[in-house]
C-alpha cells in the first residue's frame, strides 16, 4: 500500500464563510495525517500555474479572480488512499450534484463557489503540494493515534 499526498485548499468563500474549522475537522476525524497548513493570500501567477490545464475554459478568468479574491487555507494531507478518499469527502465539482454528507453537498450551492479544492491524482497531489508549500513548511511526524487507525 502506497502512502500518497494530496493538496487540499479551503477557497476564499470557505474562509469568508467561517467554514475552515468544519472542513479541517472532517479530514482530521477521517484519520489522515496533516503535514502542512497555512492561511495564504494566493498571488495571481500561482493561481494561474495551479489551474493551467483550465486556461482555455470560458470560466478561467473568473476562476482566477475567485481564488485570488481573499486568503485561502492550504493543507497537505498524507495517507494510504488519501487522494481518492479526499475527493469523496469533498464531493462533485457542482455542489448541486454533490451528495449530502460531502463537503460541497453540505456546504455549497454553486460550482463557482464550491469552497474547496482537492488534487485529482497522486501525481497532482505531489505536484500541487510542492507548488503551494515551500521546503520547511511541511512536517514529518508520527501521530500517536497511528496504531489505532491502521493495523
Ligand atoms: P474540481 O475542483 O472538482 O477538481 P475541476 O478541476 O474540473 O473541478 O475544475 C476546477 C475548478 O474550476 C472547480 O472547482 C470550479 C471551477 N469550474 C469547473 N468547471 C466549471 C464550470 N463549468 N463553471 C464554472 N466554474 C467551473
Ligand atoms: Mg480539479
Molecular structure report:
This protein is of the alpha+beta class. 40% of the residues lie in helices and 19% in strands. It has helices spanning 12-16, 20-30, 44-50, 60-67, 82-90, 103-107, 122-132, 146-149, and strands at residues 3-10, 33-40, 72-80, 116-118. A four-stranded antiparallel β-sheet has the order 2-3-1-4. The relative contact order is 0.25. Residues 54, 59, 63, 93, 111-112, 114, 117, 120 line the site of 2'-deoxyadenosine-5'-diphosphate.
Topology:
Elements (H helix, E strand, L loop, with lengths): L2 E8 L1 H5 L3 H11 L2 E8 L3 H7 L9 H8 L4 E9 L1 H9 L12 H5 L8 E3 L3 H11 L13 H4 L2
Antiparallel strand pairs: 1-3, 1-4, 2-3
2'-deoxyadenosine-5'-diphosphate (DAT) binds next to loops.
Protein name: Nucleoside diphosphate kinase
Cofactor: Mg(2+)
Catalytic activity: a 2'-deoxyribonucleoside 5'-diphosphate + ATP = a 2'-deoxyribonucleoside 5'-triphosphate + ADP; a ribonucleoside 5'-diphosphate + ATP = a ribonucleoside 5'-triphosphate + ADP
Number of helices: 8
Q: Structural class, from secondary structure content?
A: alpha+beta
The topology string of helices and strands comes to: EHHEHHEHHEHH
Low-confidence blocks of residues: none
Global mean pLDDT: 98
Provide the list of bound ligands, each named once.
2'-deoxyadenosine-5'-diphosphate, magnesium ion
Cα shape: globular
Helix content: 25-40%
Major beta sheet summary: 4 strands, antiparallel
End-to-end span in angstroms?
Answer: 13 Å
Strand order of the largest sheet: 2-3-1-4
Strand content: 15-25%
Extended strand count: 4
Rg of Cα set: 15 Å
EC number: 2.7.4.6
Cofactor: Mg(2+)
GO molecular function: ATP binding; nucleoside diphosphate kinase activity
Catalytic activity: a 2'-deoxyribonucleoside 5'-diphosphate + ATP = a 2'-deoxyribonucleoside 5'-triphosphate + ADP; a ribonucleoside 5'-diphosphate + ATP = a ribonucleoside 5'-triphosphate + ADP
Amino acid at each position: 500500500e502506497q502512502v500518497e499526498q494530496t493538496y487540499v485548499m479551503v477557497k476564499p468563500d470557505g474562509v469568508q464563510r467561517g467554514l475552515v474549522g468544519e472542513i479541517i475537522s472532517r479530514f482530521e476525524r477521517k484519520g489522515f495525517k496533516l503535514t502542512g497548513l497555512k492561511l495564504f493570500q494566493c498571488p495571481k501567477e500561482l493561481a494561474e500555474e495551479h489551474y493551467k490545464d483550465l486556461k482555455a475554459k470560458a470560466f478561467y478568468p473568473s476562476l482566477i479572480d475567485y481564488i485570488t479574491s481573499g486568503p485561502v487555507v492550504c493543507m497537505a494531507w498524507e495517507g494510504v488512499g488519501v487522494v481518492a478518499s479526499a475527493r469523496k469527502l469533498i464531493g462533485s465539482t457542482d455542489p448541486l450534484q454533490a451528495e449530502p454528507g460531502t463537503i460541497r453537498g453540505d456546504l455549497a450551492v454553486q460550482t463557482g463557489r464550491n469552497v474547496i479544492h482537492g488534487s485529482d491524482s497522486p501525481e497532482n497531489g505531489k505536484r500541487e503540494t510542492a507548488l503551494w508549500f515551500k521546503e520547511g513548511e511541511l512536517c514529518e511526524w508520527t501521530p500517536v493515534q497511528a496504531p489505532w487507525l491502521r493495523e
